[in-house]
Design goal:
Layout (H helix, E strand, L loop, with lengths): L1 H14 L4 H7 L7 E3 L3 E6 L3 E6 L10 H16 L5 E6 L4 E3 L4 H4 L4 H6 L16 E5 L2 E3 L1 H8 L2 E5 L3 E3 L13 H9 L1 H10 L3 E2 H6 L5 E3 L4 H13 L3 H13 L5 H15 L3 H11 L10
Parallel strand pairs: 3-4, 4-6, 5-7, 6-8, 7-9, 8-11
Antiparallel strand pairs: 1-2, 2-3, 9-10
Length: 293
Amino acid sequence: MALRCSHRCAARAARRAPGAAGRRALSSSSSAHAETHEYMTSSVEHGSVALVTLTRPKALNALCDGLFAELNALTKQFDADPSIGCIVLTGAGEKAFVAGADIKEMAARDFSTCYDMDMFAQWHEISKLRTPTIAAVNGFALGGGCELAMLCDMIYCAEGARFGQPEITLGVIPGGGGTQRLTHAVGKSKAMDMLLTGEMIGADEAKACGLVSRVFPQPELLPQTLKLAAKIAGFSRPAAQMTKETVNAAYEMSLESGVRFERRLFHAAFSTADQKEGMAAFQEKRPAEWKHK
């Protein structure tokens, strides 16, 4: 019932979703350029923040194979761009981030097909980006939508955002990392509750249990997210990448190994020009001028 209700609500939101011009109007006035792709639009904000907006409103921004192929290619381009210091991912419309994977595309597949194509394996490319990533969740993030948000480094959301993994109502389980990343984010008991009931949680509860780091009023979600993304992008790129690498290592290593890994990257930071500049600027009481090397 929760799944059907969420899809009806998201469908109404999708009909109200703005067109490409409207989506660009939501962006900062500092856009260097804006481009339209088959499944998304992209722009550069504040000179160093890549904004990617999913634009499948008729399908509630559902994650089809073509969308993810395009998303991976586009974000890899931004990741390789030395001028980009943060990537923000959002969805078109006020109430539809991503309502899930494209069920129509998947429904007729059998085990052999799913196994041969290693279905959903390509989703995890987002988590391999070295550039910090933020999911700006402006509505329902269900199933694959919740998994996509969790693939990013941080989740910021609007007050009306709703999160859930309702795959059990379809007779399946999450296949894009939902059982794993959700458990890491909110703990075993809460993850079991969400996964086995298929029920959604709101923005405040998502923040309280650690899934979301910041909640904003709907009109402020994108401006505030871009502002914080610009702050992140304004720091040393090597330091930001090292920070991301060490935090992610905490999921794979024991505490002792993780602390040792952190210490070695801390030592490595002293080989960068930005370490010299940052500490000199601190002593001289002036803003640092990062070299990003």
